[in-house]
Prior knowledge:
alpha/beta, Enolase-like, domain 1
Amino acid sequence: MTKKNKSFDLIVIGAGPGGYVAAIRAAQLGLSVACVDKRPELGGTCLNEGCIPSKALLQSSFKYEEALTHLSDHGVDVGKPKLNLKKMIERKNKVVEDLTKGISFLFKKNKITFVEGLASFESATSLKITKSDGATDQIEASKILIATGSVPTDLPGIEIDEKQVVSSTGALMLDKVPDHLIVVGGGYIGLEMGSVWRRLGSKVTVVEYFDSIVPALDREVATSLYKSLKTQGIEFQLSTKVTSVKKQKKGSLEVHLEPAEGGKVQKVACDVLLSCAGRKPYTDTLGLDKIGLSLTDKGFLEVNDSFETAVQGVYAIGDVIGGAMLAHKAEEEGVAAVEGMVGQKPHINYQAIPAVIYTHPEVASVGKTQEQLTSEGADFNVGKFPFTANGRARANGDMEGFVKILADKKTDEIYGVHILHAEAGTMIAEAALALEYRASSEDIARTSHAHPTVNESMKEAALSVLKRTIHV
């Protein structure tokens, strides 16, 4: 039996970073807000199965490897450390639990109604909510915002069981370290999860369809990251595809590989296969046909500059509308969408949205790559500075990598910044701010940076654009 609940000014479908941030901002603006999610826990894929738990394991695995191989360099002798994987996973789960509770607190603080269940459209202003026990409710709003995110892309010949053949979700919950882990996909997720299990003792092989890892990266940075990860022990098979995975009687997997363009099949055995060759929008359960809303050929929802779909009053943000599938991009869109609903004039500069790969070293980028600028025929200068010449990096023992700044040859406006370093993810914020305010490389070069910090390398790279680097 369906119950009809009260109406709201706005219903947000999805409680991930885009959805919950949009709900909070809408509540701040005075709207009555409900947020629907099929999970009982808030935070979406990012917090429960993606960004946060993976970073928790990356940090724990880094500390394990540091104790195993690097602490003695600092005069800290601890003997051979012992891995307690159960406790490591428990810590990861506790981090997730604490953060989901934090979002629940924020919902209560902002008087947002959380509705647990699967949402589907009855009309452009009405949703049916199906509970886990099959019961249904109905809620209404003058405006509805779709923020349902994405799910892993299915690959032919790979059937995920989250035990031996896993998605990123299953890779976060393995109860033992695989002897051999094959990772399908040399993108952000594959490289991060491959790094976790390599540090903990797995042989890791990354299979990538293209001829380089993370093809969208600045090529110089991607090549340097590839060399670094190979040095750490990760094996790569580039220009290669997985055609099938077969479970063997002895418990192992037989993985069939062949060249991307076709050719001789290679059979490789492993314990666990991680499939993470991209993600696709999650819209299958929304009942979009009931409101006459269709998807593009690539499965995305089209929106206008206000994030409104072709159906009046129905909006969409984040992974379901395309572009970079990043949590912070969805957050910005969520804020912009609800501010537009109340008559404000928000703006998002997509060129100033950074991206980070949390390997070690990290890679962080914002703006255009050298390849993009070359293909556009732009005249630009390149400035680079290596961390081997940075005092703090040397003191920390993290000297691998460089800062690369691309700037207009005539105006000196910064086009893009690309960083390879252990602290790249933190450093990129300065570059994002520079692009947001259309700064020149000289603006950064003439800004005082505290000494000794790794951020001084940003200043030096800017000086390099101007051909007047001090410390190289």
